[in-house]
């Protein structure tokens, strides 16, 4: 797995992502190799290392708004959802991403 799967594969278009929702600066898509039956990834389209290094509050709000909408879709369809972002050593790819599953 590349160091930054999101910039190198998804945002570059090398890996085709099936979109769930998209705004000017945020993309939500179905995980290409899902771990959970419902597994959606929400990422900023520009490189941000992690939740701890985001310093653009407008982007943070846009990102969380997409997370909220995706979570609402999942709860509506399945009755439950979990929103997760990994940090530090838990973070496999060093590009901020929220998982909704
Ligand atoms: Zn990146």
Give your account of this protein's structure:
The protein has two helices and five strands, in the order αβββαββ. The chain has helices at 5-11, 57-78, and strands at 18-22, 26-30, 40-44, 83-84, 98-100. It is globular. The chain has 101 residues and is of the alpha+beta class. The mean pLDDT is 94. The chain has a five-stranded antiparallel β-sheet with strand order 1-2-3-5-4, covered by helices on one side. The protein starts with a helix and ends with a strand.
Radius of gyration: 13 Å
Strand content: 15-25%
Coarse shape:
globular
| Unreliable sequence segments | none
Q: Tell me roughly what share of residues is in helical segments.
A: 25-40%
* Integer average pLDDT: 94
Query: What summary fits the major beta sheet?
Result: 5 strands, antiparallel
Q: State the separation between the terminal residues, measured CA to CA.
A: 21 Å
Number of helices: 2
Q: Which strand order do you get reading across the main beta sheet? A: 1-2-3-5-4
Ligand inventory reads: zinc ion
Oligomeric composition of the shown chains: single chain
Secondary-structure element order, N to C: HEEEHEE
Number of strands: 5
The secondary-structure class comes to alpha+beta
TL;DR of this structure?
The protein is α+β, with helices and mostly antiparallel strands and 101 residues long. Helix content is 29%, strand content 20%. The protein has two helices and five strands, in the order αβββαββ.
């Amino acid at each position: 797995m590349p160091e930054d799967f999101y910039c190198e594969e998804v945002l570059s278009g090398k890996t085709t992502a099936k979109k769930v929702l998209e705004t000017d600066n945020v993309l939500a898509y179905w995980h290409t190799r899902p771990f959970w039956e419902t597994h959606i990834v929400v990422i900023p389209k520009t490189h941000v290392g992690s939740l701890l290094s985001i310093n653009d509050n407008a982007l943070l709000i846009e990102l969380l708004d997409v997370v909220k909408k995706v979570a609402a879709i999942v709860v509506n369809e399945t009755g439950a959802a979990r929103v997760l972002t990994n940090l530090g050593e838990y973070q496999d790819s060093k590009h901020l991403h929220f998982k909704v599953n």
